[in-house]
Design a protein that fits this description.
This protein has 79 residues and is an all-beta fold. The chain has no helices and six strands.
Length: 79
């Protein structure tokens, strides 16, 4: 799972050629589908295997092992 935040963009990379320098930055946000509703992911705590999501106006922990990869939605916007 990818933690929300800013990441370098490598849109100019060409398969089979050496990697090129980053061409910019992108802000990644994530939402997770639980009980039929999308909840924004606030952060990911990898050592604790915990997702912190917004639910009912609060940020609450959810075990990352309870969330399948097919339930996560990512959005990337240029910075």
């Amino acid at each position: 799972m990818l933690s929300p935040g800013e990441y370098p963009v490598y849109a100019d990379d060409v398969p089979g050629l050496p990697p090129r320098p980053a061409s910019g930055r992108v802000r990644v946000t994530a939402s997770v589908l639980l009980t039929g509703s999308l909840h924004r992911v606030d952060r990911l705590d990898e050592p604790a295997n915990t997702l912190w999501i917004e639910r009912d106006g609060r940020v609450v922990p959810v075990a990352a092992s309870d969330v399948g990869g097919d339930l996560v939605r990512y959005t990337a916007t240029p910075v």
